[in-house]
Amino acid sequence: MVGSQTLGVRIPEHVLAGVDRFAREQDLTRSMAIAVLVEQALSDSGMAPGELPLSAKADSSGKQDTASGQRAQKWGIRTARKIAAVLEAEKAADQPMANEFMLDGKRVAIKCAKPATSQCGLTNTMRDRVDYIICASQAVGGTFNLYKVTPRQWEQHAKEPPKHNRNYGSLTHLSRSVYRRIGEDLGEVEIED
Questions:
Q1: Interatomic CA distance for residues 23 and 124, integer angstroms
Q2: Residue range 39-64: mean pLDDT, rounded
Q3: Cα 143 from chain centroid (whole Å)
Q4: N or C: which terminal CB in the chain sees fewer CB atoms within 10 Å?
Q5: Domain boundaries in the chain?
Q6: What pLDDT, on a 0 to 100 scale, did the predictor assign at position 65?
Q7: What pLDDT was estimated at residue 95?
Q8: Above 50 in pLDDT, residue 55?
Q9: Which 8-state DSSP code applies to residue 95?
């Protein structure tokens, strides 16, 4: 459910500059950026309904820890399966734990990102196995915008994690702004929570 409320609050220039920078980085409108940032702040303070308690969240620096990484991975798998069901794609039988599906005779990876997540990650082995990747970018209202990217496009435009990261050399990330620019727009889908 999307709500709207005019608050009549004057936002200091330095805060607004930060909001605008976040909006550009995340490829959002100013209003969407404010909504995402407020939602994150509420979630981080334990005030958002249905959220995990503070003790189960990532550390206060905003970096992902093991527990938050595992939650993100589980969410991605569940969400990809729901999107695949809407698309009438079937699970790839030889990769039961991966986000790989068969759609119209093609092997497809479905990678999901929440509104505050600026990129999708993909292992090099999965990239080399699939015919294309669907990047599912969740909008603030809950729907997912889908973009089709070929493995070649992914390889050309994706970024490696830092060298000290344990996934360096085996996983790359493609930013939302890039997959929106280079990918084929497949429209949007809505899934059940």
A1: 29
A2: 48
A3: 12
A4: N
A5: 13-56, 66-189
A6: 61
A7: 79
A8: no
A9: -
